[in-house]
């Protein structure tokens, strides 16, 4: 690998405002509902979502492992799972790990519910609303990993306050991760990558795990890909995969 190949991303562009956490008068997610659900999806939502869904009153227990049908050795959270491709693939690969998926988009919840039900997964629970109240309710040091994959980049400057990666949410993630736990972030938007790296590299609670360029240029082991990622590649945008370890 040449020196040029090993250059880290430029974190000087699109800097967030320094200091105070971003205001939360606007949600970080966009629309809540898309096209009409398919018949099978609607049926799974009616029959299966009630047993998969969790509410804020369910997550205050000392052990999140109690949320799952069988005992799990650790619990991970995926924020904004889209259609659930990655969430389901991870749950299939690691049946002894519990996965909580949070998604505010109804169609995404429907797709994930259908997939989880058809595959008979017992280690997935779904939360279908704004994730911030969930993050505030989860017990401290209760998660071994938090994934934020291809979040809305809100590219216009006036919308930057709606980006998920802000000081207040970094605080929330730091509170929830066990020492040695991981926060993973994927994006195909260079500006958002620089924004995120600048904040996490300056935070003494986190270490960036990358030692060489391929550590963030290549997808993580077992990565199933997503439809959004495929679209980004078709349009010539190169994704980056960033992982940070909680001290």
UniProtKB/TrEMBL annotation:
Functional pathway: tRNA modification; N(7)-methylguanine-tRNA biosynthesis
Binding site for S-adenosyl-L-methionine: 78, 103, 130, 152
EC class: transferase
Catalytic reaction(s) noted: guanosine(46) in tRNA + S-adenosyl-L-methionine = N(7)-methylguanosine(46) in tRNA + S-adenosyl-L-homocysteine
Enzyme Commission number: 2.1.1.33
Gene Ontology terms for molecular function: tRNA (guanine(46)-N7)-methyltransferase activity
HAMAP family: tRNA_methyltr_TrmB (MF_01057)
Family: Belongs to the class I-like SAM-binding methyltransferase superfamily. TrmB family.
Protein name: tRNA (guanine-N(7)-)-methyltransferase
